[in-house]
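ARCHIVE CARD
CATEGORY: sequence design from structure
SOURCE FIELD: tokenized fold
FIELD CONTENT:
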């Protein structure tokens, strides 16, 4: 069985890491740079309780936020606010003003993925000689 990756490991065509190996303390963890991602922007942010980001928008980049830990309150340019806990997801158009606040009692960690110019479609392929597994999920998972 493989050991858990705690440091950045770069292999032939891949890279793995733990978010804690990419930085320490509060603020940005530059995942794109650390893992060599070139197709889109991706960062993790660690916010202490009560901290908030500044209001901002982008010229071109649509963003998707994924809450890993903590509870975040998103405030948008139209004045609306939405709370998202672990597993929560928000998509934000580039010109939409947004601000994020950690409203939990512990550190919040969230992932931001940003890009532009569209989705490339489903382009996954099986290696030569391999057949698709009977189940798309873990053993015992219901078929869909």
């Amino acid at each position: 069985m493989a050991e858990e990756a705690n440091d950045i490991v770069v292999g032939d065509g891949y890279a793995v890491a733990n978010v804690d190996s990419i930085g320490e303390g509060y603020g940005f963890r530059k995942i794109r740079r650390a893992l060599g991602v070139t197709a889109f922007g991706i960062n993790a942010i660690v916010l202490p309780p009560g901290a908030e980001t500044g209001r901002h928008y982008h010229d071109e980049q649509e963003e998707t936020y994924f809450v890993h830990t903590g509870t975040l309150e998103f405030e948008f340019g139209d004045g609306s606010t939405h709370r998202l806990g672990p597993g929560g997801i928000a998509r934000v158009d580039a010109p939409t003003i947004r601000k994020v606040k950690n409203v939990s009692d512990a550190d919040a960690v969230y992932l931001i993925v940003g890009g532009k110019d569209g989705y490339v479609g489903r382009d996954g392929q099986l290696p030569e000689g391999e057949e698709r597994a009977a189940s798309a999920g873990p053993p015992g998972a219901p078929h869909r």
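CARD ANNOTATION: The mean pLDDT is 91. The first strand starts at residue 9 and ends at 11.
SHELF: design records, drawer C
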